[in-house]
Specification:
Layout: H1 2-10, E1 17-23, E2 28-34, E3 39-43, E4 49-55, E5 57-62, E6 65-70, E7 74-77, E8 83-87, E9 91-97
Antiparallel strand pairs: 1-2, 2-9, 3-8, 4-7, 4-9, 5-6, 5-8
Length: 98
Amino acid sequence: MVIEAALKELEHATHPVAKIVHNDANCKTLVLAFKKGMKLKEHKTNTPTTLLVLEGEITYSVDEENITLKKFSQLGIPVGLLHAVEANEDSVCLLIQG
C-alpha cells in the first residue's frame, strides 16, 4: 500500500514523492516515485545505500558521470558522495539504507 500511496500523491506533486516502507535500527527502506523530468537535487547520504529501479528509467549523476538505470537495475551509493537523480520517464524506485 505504500507504493500505491506514493503514486496517488505523485498525481498532484511537483517534486519526487518519498514514503517509508520500513524503518528499524538496522535498515531503512523508502519508495521514491517520480514523474518524467522530476529531479532530486545534488545531495549526499550518510548511510550506505542501494538504489533499485522497480519501474521506469532514471539517470544517476555523480561527478561528471551519468548512469542510466532501467527497470530492475540497481546501484550502490557510497557514503558522502555528492549525487543527483533525474527521471527519464515516470519511475518508481526503492532506496535501501543500512
